[in-house]
Each structure stands twice: as C-alpha cells, then as structure tokens.
Amino acid sequence: MNEAIIQLEDLYKSFGDERVLTGLDLSVPRGETLVIMGRSGAGKSVILKHMVGLMSPDRGEVYFDGHRLNTLKRVELERMRKRMGMLFQGAALFDSMSVAQNVSLGLRRHTRMSEEEIRTVVTAKLVAVGLSGVEEKMPAELSGGMRKRVGLARAIAMDPELVLYDEPTTGIDPITADAINNLILDTRRQFGVTSVIVTHDVASALKVGTLISLLVEGRIIFSGNPEEVKNTDNPYVRQFLEGSAEGPHKLYF
Fold it and tell me: Which part of the chain has CATH 3.40.50.300?
C-alpha cells in the first residue's frame, strides 16, 4: 500500500451536544480513490472539511503529506490547499460568473498566469470533463450534470495532487450520475490524482472506489476494496449495501 497523503488520527468533533466524529482514524493512500460511505447526516462532509482545514477538530490530528494541518498558520494552510481541489455538493458555482470565470478562480488568485495562459488551461480542463464551447455560458444555462462537470473542471484547474468530492452524484439522474462516475475514473487515469469521495450512493462507491470505508456513529467501522465490501458479512455493511431498514443501523424519523 502506498504512503498516506492524508491521515486523520483520533478525530473528535461535536456541534453543541451533537457528537459527530468520535475518535475517527482514517488513512488515504497516495494514488488511491477512497470512498467514505455513510448515511445522510453521519458526518461525511465534516470529514472533508477537516481534510482541507475548513474545520479544526475538538481533539485529534489531521495530516496532509506529513504536515499537521490543524496547527498551521493561515499562509501555510493556503499553500497546502493549493495542492487540493474540491467538487462541492451541487457544484457551488458562482451564479454571477461565467463558466470560464468560475473555472479560472484559483488560477487568478494563486498564480501569475497571463490571460492567454488562463484561457488555455480553462479550455483544456473543460475538454477534459467533456465540455467545450461553454466558456461564456452562465451557470443558470447549464443542466445539473453540466454544472457538476464545470465544478470538476474548477477542482482540477491547478493540477492538484488530491481531489475531494462531496456527494458528486446527488441530485442528478442515474444516467448522468454514471457519466460523473466515469469522469472521476478518467480524472484519476489522466492526472494520477488521489481522490476522496463521500457518498451514500452504493453503486457509485463500488464503481469508482479502490478503497471503501463505512462511517457509523462517528467512526470508521469497516474498510476494504470493492470485492471485500461485496463479500463481507459485517452486518452494518450488509444493511447499507442492501438498503434495508432491518439491521444494526439506528433509524431516525
């Protein structure tokens, strides 16, 4: 197994009386695609926010490439973030900006590229995600799947080492969702990035993940490759895969 690019150690996080992470340990090996599965509200997105330093743990450590993120000064943290890209849930495009302006945000903020160089990168990244000729369109003119693609183009615009995906197939139809899955696979093949995906979409997890972890009650209770996931007799995993109301997962209404 490759060395870890991201390491979470004994992570605790609460919001008021709600305990979200309760001693979570998780490693993301370089070059792999780690999928974190879990029910809605389980804390999957909270894990991503810790990985990029948007949240600090109440207790525990977050390491990126050996650097302890939760103790870095702002300038140092910004430098680490330049090595990461993130596809937010819903793509999180700026409605008042064109596609090209959205994709070029990081390039304008963090590089000294010329306008011509920026246009070249934007066009190349849009082509890489299966879009061309949409640079001047506004987000409102795009379908949900196209917005996701633009969000991915923005996430990879600066050639990051790590790409984080927050529920990439939520809110889109199954055919478009499968196209997004193929894009995730293509992105890994083309750019060699390490990926972390949080989702409750079992089909997506099994298709794109090289490693899959299940989050239950604030901890990772199972990790394995897709075949190990499909063949395990772990009752939590079996219930999740089968989408059954019967099993050890607690139900909330």
Answer: 1-83+162-253
Per-residue pLDDT tens for 22-71? 999 999 999 999 999 988 888 999 999 999 989 999 999 999 999 998 88
Contact 237, 229 (CB under 8 A): yes
CA distance 90 to 222: 28
CATH architecture of the domain 1-83+162-253 equals 3-Layer(aba) Sandwich (3.40)
d(CA 154, CA 160): 11
- Per-residue pLDDT tens for 214-247? 999 999 999 999 999 999 999 999 998 988 888 8
Integer Cα distance of 38 and 163 in angstroms: 19
Cα distances (angstroms) measured from residue 240 to each of 101, 125, 140, 226: 40, 35, 35, 14
How many other CB atoms sit within 10 Å of the CB of residue 44? Answer: 22
Q: With the C-alpha atoms ordered 227, 2, 196, 233, is the resulting torsion angle positive or negative?
A: positive
The phi and psi torsions of 67 (rounded to 5 degrees) equal -95, 135
pLDDT tens sequence across 3-32: 999 999 999 999 999 999 999 999 999 999
Report which of 159, 153, 158 is spatially closest to residue 137, judged by C-alpha positions.
153
| Cβ-contact 138, 58 below 8 angstroms | no
